[in-house]
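TICKET #2291
ISSUE: user wants both folds in one file
ATTACHMENT 1:
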Amino acid sequence: MATQTITQEMKECAELCHDCARLCHQCSVECADMGDKSMARCIRLCLDCADLCELMAAYLSRGSEFSQRLAALCAEICEACATECEKGDAETMKTCADACRRCAEACRKMA
């Protein structure tokens, strides 16, 4: 398989992935600062989501032949992260959850 032509939809998905990664990092730091052990799953999911979103953005930006397959996993992790973040009351968590949902939707279109 050759690299894909980078479409506007791929560029937009990459931007959403970057935004999601940034907000997941912010959320994980804020949750860690709370010092509450019940936030451990949220922190782990935010870090996993951020890492995968950064990778997804890189794959999309270079037209990787594997971006379609990675997109399905990215959408799954974004959804899990959003669900966990929605359990919290902090504004950062709500913002992160919204970004994760937008990213998941865009990744599903890529998959």
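ATTACHMENT 2:
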Amino acid sequence: MKLTLLNTPQGLKPCYDEDFDAKKMLKIGEVYTAEIRLARNYELHKKAFALVNAAWSYLPEKTQNGFRSVEGFRDYLTVAAGYYDVYFNRRLKSFVEKPKSWNFSNMDNAEFSTFYERLKDVVFGVIQPFVSLEEFEKNLINF
């Protein structure tokens, strides 16, 4: 069971309804162990997806078709930002780069912050031929 908790002077408090419901299932008087980690910044996580979606919207249709989907574009950006694993593909008889997942359990807050900065640099490089950085940043708020 995973809970998101806020540390208060009175103790740890569940942050969301589902965390509160899960905590209610714990029996009073029982001893539990827990692994405490600083939660990743959810707002930055949303901002990363907004960055990709905004960049996708500025790509010309021909360029979008080259990526096939916004997910394919996100995979490309993830690899270009250096967040990938290398595997040997027996069918192709070569090494391929597979993007890592952005899942909360895969990166801590510091690692995701570093990744986000790299992602931002890659996105700006990709969209620069199609839109000015000033216009892109101004319209990023809409995503």
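RESOLUTION: both attachments delivered.
EXTRA DETAIL ON ATTACHMENT 2: The CA atoms of residues 48 and 139 lie 14 Å apart.
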